[in-house]
């Protein structure tokens, strides 16, 4: 039987970006808050001398242990879902900071088009443009309403960047200027400008210069060491909850942070939550933590799973299209890229940063005419320089054997002579892409695993065909000796696809009939439960999700503060 603890105003499940932002804001306002994190504690000192590619990238030290908890995956309802046993598609963070510790740092805002995608699409193209199998919907909030929260997140994180006119108005410039433009990025810039495009430096949470944020957190500039994704930053240059929001919350004395505390259920009476049950991952002891407000701020999959395992909200039914928990699971479309090989040119590809890149805005969102296209939204077309670490990078043209003498020769030849023109496309919801509980497999605590039913759609395939022509044209203008272009979207494979941007499942909106939460991330069906994170996105844009996740977290914190004073629905 679980040991019952004294009641607190707020309990948060998950202490990554969403949970730590909410904890920081509430504790600064004097609200006592319990933060539960199932992984271990981390401090910036834990990142010192962590340039160990084998340990962190290939053995995934910062990631969730898939032998204890994973998801099951299938492409359609006719298939049997099987557990994901090794990381390919997703790298789910574990420990204080969550994915905010091992992310790359690319920090975009979503477009005004994204927040009103259904209304604006129908206004421009008519109602028949959105096919019935794609349940697109507005978010219940506009870009203009989101803008102040974006601004707050960017100032806290010290985002480096430059203003782009096609991306909506800004109340302030980025806190720091753009990152260094390397020869690799200059090659892309030159080619893109020749073709009439307007390249700009990618917005980055890898600081371009020393910076002190409004909370007084001082951080040093990026060293371009190339150890961002899958790694914590030993310089503190990459924005990370461990070095930004969590220390601020702890300094107030109002945060009770408990690590190795895995939340398994939300206690509720069907209309309101009374608290959570969590397990001490060392001892196996169960605890009941009563609270006035319960905040779910864990990863997309766990937010959905906790609600389903706790009987909160109506599960989505793909056969009828009814229900909301598990609905509109989306990913991101990354095919359509072109890889460039040079025989007689070399670049310093070993150096870089997770958000060191350059992009064009012309093919994002609805910035181009879709009248004659069989898809909606678009893709960011970009070139990046993350830094090629030696184990992971063995580049060779398509058709080269995967091992043997020829593979070795080609890998050595192109070690510093291969560039990419990439694309990252929007992922729109499909009726048959969703999340639910697996009827067969359970985790180490006997709780059902989450089951993902997902495959790329005709929308995705048409987008890839279109964007691949754009990346090819830019690649040709860059003058390589050989180009490989991926112009077709293959079926989804959970062990192969490499984008890590999962969204949806507890989506926001203006109507409880087609959404689980309102614009403050407050559940329609349980007013004292707030579900915060990328699980709130009704679709995924063509940009990395963290900036929008951060902005929504600040809005949720504002809403939780109001709820504790006023009660009731906030909209």
Automatic annotation (TrEMBL):
Residue stretches making up the Glucose-methanol-choline oxidoreductase C-terminal domain: 429-552
Keywords noted in UniProt: FAD, Flavoprotein, Oxidoreductase
Residue runs in coiled coils: none
Name of one Pfam family that matches: GMC_oxred_C
Domain Glucose-methanol-choline oxidoreductase N-terminal span(s) in chain numbering: 183-330
Keyword match Lyase: no
Molecular-function annotations in GO: flavin adenine dinucleotide binding; oxidoreductase activity, acting on CH-OH group of donors
Highest rank taxon of the organism: Bacteria
Recorded family membership: Belongs to the GMC oxidoreductase family.
Protein name: GMC family oxidoreductase
Organism name: Virgibacillus indicus
């Amino acid at each position: 039987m679980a040991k019952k603890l004294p009641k607190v105003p707020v309990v948060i499940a998950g202490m990554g970006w969403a949970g730590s932002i909410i904890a920081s804001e509430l504790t600064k306002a004097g609200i006592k808050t319990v933060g539960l994190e199932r992984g271990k504690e981390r401090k910036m000192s834990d990142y010192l001398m962590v340039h160990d590619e084998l340990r962190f990238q290939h053995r995934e030290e910062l990631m969730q242990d898939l032998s204890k908890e994973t998801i099951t995956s299938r492409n359609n309802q006719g298939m049997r879902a099987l557990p994901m046993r090794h990381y390919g598609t997703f790298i789910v963070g574990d420990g204080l900071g969550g994915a905010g510790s091992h992310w790359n740092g690319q920090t975009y805002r979503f477009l005004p088009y994204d927040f009103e995608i259904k209304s604006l699409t129908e206004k421009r193209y008519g109602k028949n443009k959105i096919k019935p199998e794609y349940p697109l919907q507005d978010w219940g909030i506009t870009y203009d309403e989101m803008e102040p929260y974006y601004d707050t997140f960017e100032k806290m994180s010290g985002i480096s960047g430059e203003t782009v006119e096609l991306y909506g108005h800004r109340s302030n410039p980025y806190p720091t200027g753009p990152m260094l433009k390397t020869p690799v990025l200059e090659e892309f810039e030159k080619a893109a400008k020749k073709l009439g495009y307007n390249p700009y430096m990618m917005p980055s949470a890898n600081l371009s210069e020393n910076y002190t944020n409004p909370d007084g957190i001082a951080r040093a500039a990026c060293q371009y060491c190339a150890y961002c994704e899958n790694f914590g930053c030993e310089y503190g240059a990459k924005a990370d909850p461990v070095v930004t929001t969590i220390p601020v919350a702890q300094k107030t004395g109002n945060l009770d942070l408990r690590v190795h505390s895995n939340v398994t259920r939300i206690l509720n009476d069907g209309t309101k939550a009374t608290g959570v049950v969590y397990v001490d991952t060392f001892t196996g002891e169960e605890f009941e933590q009563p609270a006035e407000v319960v905040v779910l701020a864990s990863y997309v999959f766990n937010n959905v799973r906790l609600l389903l395992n706790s009987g909160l909200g109506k599960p989505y039914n793909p056969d009828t299209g009814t229900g909301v928990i598990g609905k509109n699971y989306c990913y991101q479309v990354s095919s359509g890229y072109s890889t460039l090989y040079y025989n007689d040119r070399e670049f310093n590809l070993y150096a870089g940063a997770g958000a060191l890149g350059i992009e064009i805005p012309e093919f994002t969102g609805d910035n181009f005419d879709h009248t004659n296209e069989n898809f909606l939204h678009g893709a960011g077309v970009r070139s990046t320089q993350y830094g090629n670490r030696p184990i992971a990078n063995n580049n060779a043209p398509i058709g080269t054997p995967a091992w043997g003498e020829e593979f070795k020769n080609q890998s050595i030849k192109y070690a510093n002579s291969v560039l990419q023109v990439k694309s990252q496309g929007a992922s729109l919801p499909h009726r048959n892409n969703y999340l639910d509980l697996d009827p067969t497999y359970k985790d180490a605590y006997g709780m059902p695993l989450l089951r993902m039913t997902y495959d790329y759609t005709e929308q995705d395939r048409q987008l890839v065909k279109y964007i691949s022509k754009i990346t090819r044209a830019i690649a040709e203008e860059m003058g390589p000796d050989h180009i490989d272009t991926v112009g077709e979207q293959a079926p989804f494979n959970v062990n192969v696809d490499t984008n890590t941007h999962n969204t949806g499942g507890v989506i926001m909106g203006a109507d409880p009939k087609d959404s689980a939460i309102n614009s403050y991330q407050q559940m329609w069906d349980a007013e004292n439960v707030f579900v915060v994170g990328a699980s709130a996105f009704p679709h995924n844009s063509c940009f990395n999700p963290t900036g929008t996740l951060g902005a929504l977290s600040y809005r949720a914190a504002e809403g939780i503060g109001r709820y504790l004073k006023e009660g009731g629905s906030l909209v």
